[in-house]
Every structure is written in C-alpha cells, then in structure tokens.
Design a protein that fits this description.
Mean pLDDT: 92
Strand order of the largest sheet: 13-19-18-17-16-15-14
Radius of gyration: 23 Å
CATH superfamily of the largest domain: Naphthalene 1,2-dioxygenase Alpha Subunit, Chain A, domain 1
Structural class: alpha+beta
CATH architecture of the largest domain: Alpha-Beta Complex
Bound molecules: FE2/S2 (inorganic) cluster, fe (ii) ion
Distance between the termini: 57 Å
Largest sheet: 7 strands, antiparallel
CATH class of the largest domain: Alpha Beta
Number of strands: 20
Number of helices: 10
Amino acid sequence: MAETYSVGIDPKLLEKREGEQWTDKYPGLGKEKLSYLSMTSPEFFELEREAVFRRSWLYAGRLEWVEEPGQFFTKEYEVCNASIIVVRAQDKKLRAFYNVCPHRGNKLVWKDDPTAEMQGTCDRFYCKYHGLGFGTDGKIEVLTDRKSWFFDQGKELQLAEVPIESWNGFLFVNLSPEGPAESLREFLGEYYWNGFDWPFERFTERFVAQGSTKCNWKGLMDAFNEVYHGVYVHKEAFPYLLKMELTEEALEAMHVKMQVLVGKHGFYVSPRNPQGLFVTDIERIAQCAGTGPQYPMVEDHSKIPPAANPQNRDDWGTSSHFIFPNIMIQFYYPGWYLIYQYWPLAHNEMRFEIDCHYLPSRNFSELMSHFGHCATFWDAALQDVNNLEATQRGLEMGAFSEWPLTDQEMLIRGFHKQIYDHVERYKASLRQKASE
Ligand code: FES
Ligand SMILES: [Fe+2]
C-alpha cells in the first residue's frame, strides 16, 4: 500500500477496523436521533443566514475565469442579500466588491435581468442609473454632473471591497460584517490547504446546469453525502442498476469505502462501478455507466490530489468533498471533476448548480462523450431534486421531529451538527452582546 496522506488529521480516521463503525471515531458526534428542525423552521433559517453564510468563506468561482486584466464575473448570494463582482483589476490584483453603486445604490453590473449572474471584460464599470464610472480598483474614474456634488463626496466615491482568497484556483469571498474571523487557510484546515494540488485550471470544458427546487438546501447536500440511495432513486438514469440483484452483499459493495470528517468539512471515497455495463444507447455514446465517461478520456487523470485519495487506493470511483457550508467538489474516475453549489433561498427553497469540468475535447466524439455524460448525469440529479421535494413535504408534515441516521449517514450527521453548533455559537454571541 502506498503512503497514506494524513497531514492535519489523525491517520486512524482514514481506516475502519473490523467491527468498528465510522461514527465511533468521533465521540462527540453521538448516535442519537438528530432533530430536523433545521430543515423546516423559517426562524432557524434566519439564524442560519447570519451564523453560517454571513460568517463563512463562500465559494465564488474559478481563478481561470479572471486571469486577464479587466476580466470579471458576478456572483449572486441571495442568502446574504448580496451580489459580488470578482475582477482581475488593471493592476493585475484580484479584487472583489459588493455589486452596488455608492451613489444611490443601484446594482452596478448586470445585463437585462438584474437578478442574473454575468461575466465579461471591461476597463471600468459604468452605473446604468446616472453614468458614474468605477475603475477595476473600485475607485471613481468618471464623475458625471461634476459641479453638483457637495464637498468631496463625488470624487471620494468608491466601491465597497470584500475579502477574496484562492485555494488551488477555487475563489472564496467572506461577507462577515466584522471581517473574516479566520483566513481561508484556517477555515479549510491544513489537510485541505496542503493536499489539493491538481491541474484544475486545465479542466476548462464546462457544462453547467442550474435550477431551483422546493426543499431545504441541506436536503440536497445530504443526498450527495451518501451514495447508497443510488440503487433506489437512480435506477432509471443508470439502467444497469436495474439488472443488479439487491442482495445484502451487493448493497454492502455500494457503500462508501471511506468517510472522514475533517473539521467543518468532510469527504467520502466510493468504489468504482463495474466496467462494461452499458445498457442504453445514451450510455454507450456517453461511455458512461453511473459515474461518467470512462473511455476514451482525453488524458488519464486518475491520480487525484492526495487529500482526495489519502490511501492511494486504485479502486476509487468517486471522491466527494463537502466544503462547509455549501459546496461539494467531486472527482470521478478516471479524471474529471465537478462542483455542486447548494444556495438557500428560503427554509424550504433552494437554488442548485452543477458545474462539470473536463479537459477540452480534441474532437467531436469526445465532445459528444462529455455532453452525453452530462445529459445522463443531470437526469440523475433531477431525480434527486424531485425526490427531495417529496422529502421536504414529508418533513413538514410534522409527524416526526427527529431522524435516526445510520453509519452510512455519518457525514450527514457531522454536517448537521456543524450547522447546529454554528447557530448555537451565534446565539451565544448575541446574548453576550446584549448583556454588555
Ligand atoms: S446610482 Fe449609480 S450613478 Fe447614481
Ligand atoms: Fe442521488
């Protein structure tokens, strides 16, 4: 066995001994049922906005989208009532600003639909309302109606800057009103900070699916934090599952091979699907049976970052990382990746995005393989979304108030505990402030 990668975590967490359960490894996690108030309560959602989203580093996009001076993109954070501009400024510095004009508060960068995200390249940002122009460093450059301004209020105008940091090209911003409580490195921890080196910037062929659905944002996150629902929910997307006999052994084989909590974050590694199980034409075109194109790939990138395959297993099929609070980065054998984003809109409504990244196709056949794969993959995701609307309705009946979570659902338990802990700490800080 090749060397284990365990920088920043106890190597014992990476292996399950005979008779042991994953949940046993975290004594604070408990095995009791867990309240699902956090899925159904509008009041809890209001606390979550402040405690979790306003005070965490939040994913914005990829570094390769803003390499050249003037390149920018906007990002909507409905949960924080914010829109952010990320820009490579003319002085080459990467910057982020609230997407709002400091004159009368118009949203600064948008096109046609003020609620939609956009990207482009420019020398400066012009406000559509009264024509003020701001440089990519945020400073006022074009002041209209020059003689009407009082004192220095016109020439002092500038955009409100937001902290932004990069981790292997994944860009994160922090919207905390007090400023970030910790650096992105501290937020991610040493395991992830040091162990995620991979040529992500080369995977520029993207297929993006977006949508909204009537479920709590954590519900969809939970569905992707375990894999064994696949044999029940995704039979139609992956017809080879129909051929499987669901014996105890077959189900056991579908279980994750490793699941690990790493501070606020966590991951699992699951086994590879058997080869040669293509059943339908679309599977053959996509060269995809469950986890994605398997042959031909442009290049074999089955060697994934050490933190994504810490035991260097050669039977890995999926390596899935939830980065608190609301994204997942998933690697699929033999080498492509995706980013899921789960953005809350209300306690029972969310917006999701699936952003699949491949090495650029060299020919039409490869392009069709990628595109066909995404079609089947998204079909499966829609099944999850549809199922989750049913779950949300079930939860809101109020017939039960707690969940029993199994050992296969350890990451879900860990994630929900983090959410409750964040909210409790935030409530304590409010109480502390009130008593001062
Ligand atoms: S609100 Fe932007 S120029 Fe007036
Ligand atoms: Fe699923």
